[in-house]
Amino acid sequence: MARFEQYQEPPRALEGLKVVELPCLDTMPFMAASMAGKSFADFGAEVVKVEPPRTGSQERALGPFRDEMPDPETGGLHLFLNTNKLGVTIDLESPRGRDLIFDLLASADIVFNPNRPEVNEKLGIDWRALTARFPNLIVVSITFFGAESAYRNLRGGDLVATHMSGVGYETPWHQVTDPENQPPLKLGGRQSDYLTGYTAAASAMCALYSRKSNGAGQHVDVGQWLSMISMIRPNIGFYSHEVRDSASFQRLLTRRKTAGQWVFPCKDGWVSFSAGTDRFWRGAKKAMGNPEWMDTELFGTILGRAGNIDAIEAGVIDWLSTITRTEAFERAQAEHVPCFPVHSPAEVAGNEQYKARKFFIDLEHPAAREVRMPGAPCKFSRTPWRIVRGAPRLGEHNEKIFQNPPVANGDRIASQNQSKKKTRPLEGIRVADFGWIYAVPHATAWLGALGADVIRIETSGAPDLVRFLTGTDGSIGFNRSGVFHAINSSRRSLALNLAMPEAQEVARKIIRQSDFVTENFTVGNMAKYNLAYDDLVKIKPDIIMLSGTPLGQDGPFARTVGFGPTTQAFAGLCHITGYPDSFPCGIGGTWPDFAVGTGMVFFLLAALHYRDRTGQGQYLDLSMAEMVTTMMPEAMMDFLMNGRDQAAIGNRDESMAPHGVFPAAGDDQWIAIAIASDDEFARLCEALGVPSMASAPKFARLFGRLANVEELEREIAARTSVHQRDQLVTRLRERGLAAGPVYSTPELMKDPVFSQSSMLVNLKHGEVGERVVPGLPVQFSAIDLEYRGAPMIGEHTDELMGELLGYSAAEIARLREAKVLI
């Protein structure tokens, strides 16, 4: 007789953790805490979402709504951001409300607070008060500019953070030909909100590991502005390493197109295409049928192609004009050249790769009925992301929570033996890092700063492209790239030629003594080196391995070649980023590499948390495209609920007006202004010297301003254009308005607050000396961050081979002679 095993749901990585998510009380929509809470809830933590009575959280009012019928229970943004959460309503301004909050925090591990310090101080829930009252609690401040910054009480938001960070200045990426009529752009949706949410989630996990070592909670300071600045890390490397007259530095001074763009028109739409390296250039020639114009000596080197980019792009556009997106994708990928179609949200929803990986999920919701939405940002083999309950109805769990107060869990009870000493929470953790380019190295830089021993495995035979993206003081070499130095701090370098079996054995010996393996090679490469996850669990059963690729490890397009900028096209983000009724745009800051790298930190530490509890490792499969799609819920939910395929709307917002970038006096000077209420609009009009405009029938109320947005923007621009940028920013900020200068990187580096930020660190490098590079975009009150300069290639080979692996000097010499160690 057959035996049937009872089905058991798989375990959840963060089960047992308790998180409280407080509401944002600003009029400016700010979804960062909601995304941070979702990250924890969807991997198994108990997250209690606190909302104001009657109105609920901000996302309930924003939609998209099915059939354009507003309902706070069924808006797509609410349904997506609040899965798996318990929902309660509390009036934070009442004494009873504060008592209820304190009851929740007494048993919580983490609290996310998305309010400015002056608001928190008024309510008695500022971080100093909370850490004093709850010494075990991890208090994560998520603010526009940082809880301890000189800008801490300024108002900001997605628009202001994007344009003050330098990302907006670079968007569109090398597509600006008419700067006066093509202003700097923000990204489609609320990208900086969701990036800040992932930054907060990653930082909270870092603090959790600190508490495991010293038993104490702490304050974690996460600012939206610094989170976005972290996306332009290469620019800071250019700025601190290159001579001022170099092409790399000069690019930082202009928005006008000076180099190759990423997005091109073709017969039936647009593609993202790159043939910058010698290898990709050779592949592109084959894909394009070896046209004669590509054989000129002018195009024979990277520098030659860079100097003649307009001629090359004309040839590429001519070729693409004769073929479809699918044909361009197939021909380029057949020759291993990065090329992806620019997809709209509708095309993402119907794409075969997403379908094969079962990315989109369906769930039943008591108010919204059947709902489809984006799924896992990263696949965990043992503790998969999953939805066990839909977003809560307003106050749905009041009775459950308030009548049965939470009890402190075992971890918190055990953590009473506290130490005030700062920790390096990942000391003793080792990472075998095979990552290159941007995303994985960014993730492992976080781990290294937290004390992990990150061993970067690389080879001079096929060096990281980033080692040659730029130089130092006009000289290029393996160890002179400012971009590499800006991304690869706090690690050791082992030069290893993985094509050779002996090198693979050395790598396995490293992995036997490691906790993490990270890599972002093309799918199949690790298996080629006998270093796939199935190989590694045989020698290290509890290993945690993360593979980050453009489209994931399986599906019909898994083995495609791509970079972050080509992936943003596949995921739908290029389509919704751009000027109204214009072309899709590439995004500045090499988006989404560093955003994905930040998410990787959270995923790796979540897996480590599970291993600490169970002794079990697992495999993490991250598709960059899928993670990007999870960060555009407005557009995706609008299509999935209404069949509406959103297009780009520039710097505008569907719930605010004016919301944009406006000219100031001077050449290419711009100011970002975001107005979230009628009262704020009246203050703006007064500051601009036209108070009567606030009572004009077509502008007095939000509905009128949205209906007449083009005329409104012309009126605002006519007034802002006569003011000096920084003086007008100050005037608007004095009136409590969300405004900021549009910064280039050199301007950002001179900002009086950022220039003194803890994010900028001076690190000594073995060849180029001491230089300024970016550190982490967050501050921890009880973590001692360990920053060390980026390694020269193979700098620590002898040290690692001898001290860690026990090879003799003679053996090391033999392996070097045999070109195993190169």
Distance between the termini: 61 Å
Question: Largest sheet, order of strands side by side?
Answer: 3-2-1-4-5-6-24
Count every beta strand, where a strand is a DSSP E run of 2 or more residues.
Answer: 24
Q: What is the approximate shape?
A: globular
Note the total helix count: 35
Q: How many strands, what sense, and barrel or not for the largest sheet?
A: 7 strands, mixed
Rounded to an integer, what's the Rg over CA atoms? 26 Å
Helix content: 25-40%
The secondary-structure class comes to alpha/beta
Mean pLDDT across all amino acids: 96
Low-confidence stretches: none
Can you give a write-up of this model?
- With about 800 residues, the protein is α/β, with parallel strands linked by helices.
- The strands form 6 sheets. It has a 7-stranded mixed β-sheet, with helices on both faces.
- The chain is globular and about 80 Å long.
- The relative contact order is 0.14.
- The model has no long low-confidence stretch (mean pLDDT about 95).
Describe the structure concisely.
The protein has 822 residues and is α/β, with parallel strands linked by helices. The protein is built from 35 helices and 24 strands.
Features of this protein?
seven-stranded mixed beta sheet, alpha/beta
Topology:
Layout: E1 18-21, H1 32-41, E2 46-51, H2 76-81, E3 86-89, H3 95-106, E4 110-113, H4 117-123, H5 127-133, E5 138-143, H6 158-165, H7 191-214, E6 218-223, H8 224-229, H9 233-241, H10 247-251, E7 263-266, E8 269-273, H11 278-287, H12 302-307, H13 309-320, H14 325-334, E9 339-341, H15 345-349, H16 352-356, E10 361-365, E11 369-373, E12 379-380, H17 398-403, H18 410-413, E13 430-433, H19 439-449, E14 453-458, H20 482-487, E15 492-495, H21 501-512, E16 516-519, H22 525-528, H23 533-539, E17 544-549, H24 564-570, H25 573-576, H26 593-614, E18 618-623, H27 624-630, H28 633-642, E19 659-663, E20 670-674, H29 678-687, H30 702-707, H31 709-720, H32 725-734, E21 738-741, H33 745-749, E22 760-765, E23 769-774, E24 778-780, H34 797-804, H35 809-817
Parallel strand pairs: 1-2, 1-4, 2-3, 4-5, 5-6, 13-14, 13-16, 14-15, 16-17, 17-18
Antiparallel strand pairs: 6-24, 7-8, 8-9, 10-11, 12-18, 19-20, 20-21, 22-23
